[in-house]
Structures are given as C-alpha cells and as structure tokens.
Amino acid sequence: MRYFLVSVSNKVNLELCIRYALAGFTNSINGLWTFLEIKEEDYISFLYGARVFNLYKVIAKEAFKNAENLPPWPPVTFSMSRKTYYFPFRLRLKPIRKFSEPMVRPEFAYVAENLLLRGGYRRTHFQADTLTFNYVSQMGQLYNDKVQELEITDGERFSPLLCFDKRLASPPQIFYFHELVLQSLIKDYLSQITKLRKVLDYIGKSKYKEDAFEVLGEKAFPEGHVDILIKDKYPSEKSQKIIVEVKKGVAKEGDIIQLRNYMNEIKEECEGGILIANKFSRNIILSARKSGIVLLGYSFRQIDINRAYSYEELFQKIYLRTLEGDTI
Predict the structure, then answer these.
(1) pTM for the whole thing?
(2) pLDDT tens digits for 260-285?
(3) Span 3-158: which CATH code?
(4) How far apart are CA 116 and CA 93, in angstroms?
(5) Domain 178-321 has CATH 3.40.1350.10
C-alpha cells in the first residue's frame, strides 16, 4: 500500500475527477509513468491550487484506445508546442474520506517540500510517506456523497507495452523504454522485503531491519532530486536515509558528483548512497569507492528487442547485480 498526490491541471478537470471518482493521465511518457507507478490497492488524493482534495483507494486500472473521443475529459492542445493530449490511462477510485486541506499544513510537509523544490505542478504525481498517509486517514470525514457512474461502452481497452527498439514504439499503446519506467521498476524491486534485506546487507547496514524502511519515489533537495529514497517509516530521534540514483545507460562522473552532493546535504542522517546503472567504467568504479558510493548494475533476463513487453513482464525479468557478479 502506498499513497500518492495526483496533480490536476484545472478546476474543471478536478470537478470531473471528483464527480466520477476517476483519475486520468495523458498519452505522454509522464502519463504512462504515473499509470504504471500507481497500483491497485494504493491510495491517492487530488492536488490542485495548493490544496489537497479527498482520499481515494484505487480499485481498477484501465487504458482506452481512441480516448480523445471518450468522456469525461476533453483533449487539451498547448499553444506553444501545438501538441494535443488526451487521457487514455485511467484509475477507477473508491472514495474513502472527504476533505479540502491547504498544502501548508505541517502534515503535508514531505510532499510540500517536493512541490516547492521541483518547481510547482509540472509533475504528474508525488509519492508521500507513511506518516503523511496516517495523517490524511484522519482528516475530514468519511465520504458519504453519491458518486456518478461513468459507463464507457464504446471504448476499446488495451494494456500498454514497452519496447527497446524505437521503431516499434507507437504511443500510447507501445512506448520506448524510458528512464522513468526503469526508476519505477527498481523502486518496486527494492520494495520487496527480501531484496531490500540483501541490499542492506551488501552496503554494510545489516543492523537495520528491512521492514522498518519504506522505498519512496523522487525526493527533492536544494541541489536537485534523488530518484529513490529509502527512509525510516517511523523516525525516532533521527530519520535514517539511503539515497539511490538510477541511470538507464552507462554511469558518468557527474552522477558520482551529484550523488555525493546529496549525501553531504543529508549529512549524518545519510546511511548510504547507491548508484544503479547498466554499465560502469573502471574510472567510475574507482571514483565511487573514493566517494563511499555503492555501485549496483541492473539487467533483464532474456530480452528480445524485436518485441514489446508489459510492465509486469519486465518486472519479472529485471534484477540487480553487484560488481562481483552476484545477484541481489
């Protein structure tokens, strides 16, 4: 179970989301990323105008062909790029609690910091921590308003796929494999208790219990943002943090410098830094050792670049490996 705040672009879209208990995401890589990140049984709230609206449980995920012709959201064309976006990726929601609360409440501090440092609402979604979800579960009142059912009878459903050859890409049905998707895969991988246990052991943190940590998405800092943050679910005295950077291709010296800066910013609460990439040069390995950074490679088992895969298929194929060649 995880909790996300989903950004809504305007008031009309917010009203439609609430009326039908639906969340919709565009035919862009960011829309796909959000759709893949949020799972059934997760919880979301809507974020609009520096306020947080309601608490919902995700009960179903659907993707529709020809969604530009389907209700409830009309297509949106941006004047600068002249690109038109529509909403093929959708979440069906069960209303849990009703509230409208300002982001300035201290209970939303974890997300509010991300919102400020990431430059506003251009992000499609923000993952909150367990403490935020605990606070939200007590806000407002139980949701008793009637939700209007939206039946779509003329929409053909599809399952989005990912490919490793750009010639196969045909959004929104098939997207070229993007680093955002890789981050989600690795976050889900590390969220498995057995995998996290192996990682803690490998980086020399065997004293910590794996179930005391949670694995979260992007975390913003003044210096930038880390791709994955592993932190205490319930901090006591101080909040232990392990930061993880994910790179799709070959690791670069700038990645080491960036990760080291993040570690220095967190200071004594940082329990380690991990750089995950497909390949590492000898110079990068030496630089990481000097900086106290752990390197882990990622690979996929038996990938055929001539076909496309579902997210679930890729999750079954991905694995992390140490520099010594051991699988984590």
Answers:
(1) 0.94
(2) 999 998 888 899 999 999 999 999 99
(3) 3.10.590.10
(4) 27
(5) yes
